[in-house]
Amino acid sequence: QGVCSAAGADLALQKGVNYPRGPLAWADAVGLERIVGVLDNLAAGYGEDRYRVAPLLRRTLANGGAFHE
Asked: In sequence order, what are the residues at sequence separation of 6 or more whose Cβ sits closer than 8 angstroms to the Cβ of residue 24?
């Protein structure tokens, strides 16, 4: 959405709330395909909106599957 880069968001959360790895770097390490698959299964199984995959995750997966290059 143009607010900051993936690296900037990760750095803010690492320094601001002491995450050992930023959430976007973590998502890249785990794999967006795996994360989206798990969330889709949870949404289908429980029928709850809290498991709905964010559009940014789907877009990033469709465009190569990583926040960082």
From this structure: 6, 9, 10, 67, 68
**Residue at token pair 């795996």:** 34
* 27 inside domain: yes
Of 23, 2, 4, nearest to 14 by C-alpha is 23
> Tell me: the pLDDT tens digits for 9-62?
999 999 999 999 999 999 999 999 999 999 999 999 999 999 999 999 999 999
Amino acid at 8: G
**66 and 31 Cβ atoms separated by less than 8 Å:** no
CA-to-CA distance for 64 and 58, rounded, in angstroms? 10
Residue 31, in any domain of the structure:
yes
**pTM (2 d.p.):** 0.85
